[in-house]
Amino acid sequence: MPVKRLHTLRGSTMIEVVVGFFLISLAVGLTTVLFNQVMNSSVLYSRHRAYLAVNNLVEKQQEQNTYEAVSEEYGDLVIEVTLTPFDEKRKLYIVTYQAIQKEKKEVLYKRQLLKQIKTNGE
User: Residue 94: its pLDDT value, please?
Assistant: First the structure.
């Protein structure tokens, strides 16, 4: 009996069923998109904070004209500065700044600069 009833649906009822399925799928899609945006915004916020922390340290070192290998903490971030020799004759070094999240040990932002660093004797 129920199979016969399904075949005898009126046209307007069939349209309502199709529109209902469309609205349900639209609601599920919007919920998924909003969830992804919220999850991505927290990651983007962390990366932006890392970017700002690294750039503040770069500006501070450029103003003081002192480049040294240090490790500084900014809240839940650790900013590590490393110096890698590039050209010993010209005293060129690659200065690498890395913002690392303490908990996950994940590098959120990395910046490299090529700088000429003079020693105290010169």
Answer: 92
Summarize the confidence of residues 19-45 as an average pLDDT.
88
Expressed in angstroms, the distance from the first to the final Cα of the chain is 99
* Token pair of 3 as six digits: 């199979």
Asked whether the beta carbons of 70 and 95 are under 8 A apart, the reply is no
> Which pLDDT does position 10 carry in this prediction?
66
CA contacts within 13 A on the Cβ side of 68: 9
Distances (CA, A) of 78 to 33, 58, 107, 109: 32, 14, 9, 11
CA distance 99 to 74: 9
Dist. CA 25–CA 96, nearest whole Å:
48
What is d(CA 113, CA 83) in angstroms, rounded to the nearest whole number? 10
**What order do you get walking across the sheet with 71-74 strand by strand?**
71-74, 77-87, 92-101, 106-116
Q: Which two tokens stand for residue 29?
A: 């899609």
